[in-house]
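Slide 14.
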Amino acid sequence: MAHQHLTLLAAALLCSTLTHAQHASNALPAVSVSGRSADTPVSVGGFGDTPIAKLPIQATLLGSERLLDLGLSSLAGITALDASIGDAYNSQGYVSYLKIRGFDLDNRFNYRRDGLPINAETALSLANKSSIEVLKGSSGIQAGTSAPGGLVNLVVKRPTAAPLSSLLLSVSERGTVEAGVDLSRRFGEAQVFGLRLNASAAELRPQLRDAKGERRAVALAGDWRLAPDTLLEAEFEWNRQSQPSQAGFSLLGERLPDAKSIDPRINLNNQAWSQPVVFDNHHASLRLQQRLNADWKAQAHLGLQRLKTDDRLAYPFGCSAADGTYYADRYCPNGDFDQYDFRSENERRDSDALDLSVAGNFVAAGLRHELSTGLLFSRFESHFQRQIYSGPGTGNISGQLPAKDLPAGTDENTKRDERSREFYLRDSIQLGAQWQAWLGLRHTRLTRDSVRTDGSRPTHYSQSFTTPWLGLSYALSSQHMVYASWGEGVESEVTPNRSRYTNAGQALPALKSEQFEIGFKAGSNTVDWGINVFDTQRPAWRDVGACDDNDNSCTRVADGEARHRGVEAQADLKWRGGGLLASAMKLRARRQGSADPSLNGLKPANVAERSLKLQARQNIGLPGLQLQAGLVYEGARAVLPDNSLSIPSWTRLDLGARYEHSLGNQLLIWRVGVDNASNRRAWKESPFQYGHVYLYPLAPRTWRASLELSL
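Slide 15: predicted structure.
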């Protein structure tokens, strides 16, 4: 049935092309993407319609057109576009995990959808997203609790002013095929009603072996201009992905395996009993915008999210060697590993958020203010069943060793609930012709509960905290600005309610991070560029004591901090027929202030301290033809927490071409590309998860092509 759907979509696209070609009239000119992204507002920044170039923060805006050119269909792909964004645990077929400025984002708290908080512990669809906004740095005034790296906001496609009809067909190596449609129309007298439909279907046949899957998405967005000053917007999205996920490689005893000797297409999740991970997601929102007068507007925005996951994996973890040695955090020297059958079925994650806000401008004491304030009510609930954790059997990195007759086993899971009430206030004050001050604060009250599926180990706590933020900018000219900012973020943590802890089930003090940043921004019609320096300090916690099971010998305490200091530089250069998007980061991330001197000075695992990302484009020869090239460089990453091993740096080259031409009244955009053109073999990242080392290889050379038809 899935193949029939794809065939029908492809046939519809072809028939539409031929039919409209018979009625050709005036040729359409080739369309090129233009305009300054720096002039575009970013809602994730929290200061309304102020463009990126005027904000005393660093943010990246990635439009859907750029994502299409690069063939990106998951959030993990944006690591190729900004030097400050890195991989945190990006397994193909699974959830995307990102880090910003060396800090792992928390998928429960660091993601937004049209500005409302969502849970990103799922495969988020990009099919109906007009852009991805990435805030870099402290997010205390944008989020109640969040990791200090930044925020990611997915912006939903809305009905357009002019009719839109677009069909897309794409293919890539080993037979991945995807078809999609994007339609927008306006109706009624004065066109007060608008509808936009996005639908896509994909059969996934990646280079990674034993990872066949499918992806489906349907989204409908509508708006209704109830009155000249009143706009009602509603939208609904459903997406589903079913695909076996990729298990990681690891150290072989004391040895870091040579990435050149590893086939990156091997999937260690390849047992006969392996099952796909299934993500089934529903999102919906309702937004009412009311202009109160020429200076003030109000908004009520409700968002709902319902996630269902069947999480399954043939899971390699550690190794029991034939000589009796147990390798707890890696595989055996011969490549063997302990293989487990992990299944957590019918996981439910529900999120609701309601934001009530007003925004406007006024003059007080001779100073111009642009103020926004509001209340955010949010609820997160996660409900799980008991999980299967059978094993171990034995597997091998060759991918050729079947693990049979695993002993049965089950384990309890943990349910979590959270309720949060947040008051926020943000004010931009024009101090003069050149000076501008930026003020913000957020007060949060949260309540969190957790309990095991058998009713054991319950925890409950409530906390309140306030996170301020200050900024000051000075316009050197209409195109140049310097700024400085300071802000706080906060995370909330509870000690696991286990018998080994002396403070089991108790909340730690709210862990407030702090960030200083200074920067310079410049912009014109031909170049937007900037450079900034940041210094972020995040409190750390550690288990102190013997920490043996069931002996009340362990205490979780706040202990020192992680300090990340760095320099970022970014530029968006444009010239006639081409351009270059470039970014670089030099980061110094260290542990400091611990009561254990051996920990001080250590680098965090899986963090590259140098990175460079380049995306170049140039029109050449035939009108409408554009050549593209991308370069990604990532520095060395520590593999172990003690920094005794690191994976080497690596560089990847991507190539592409885009050709626009008209066929009658239709515009056709052909895209072709090859990722990892030199077929570079390297370890892409080295996440240290659950006390275990994992290694993920760069994907091999992969060809892709697509055709987009605008009717």
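Speaker note: The longest helix spans residues 2-21.
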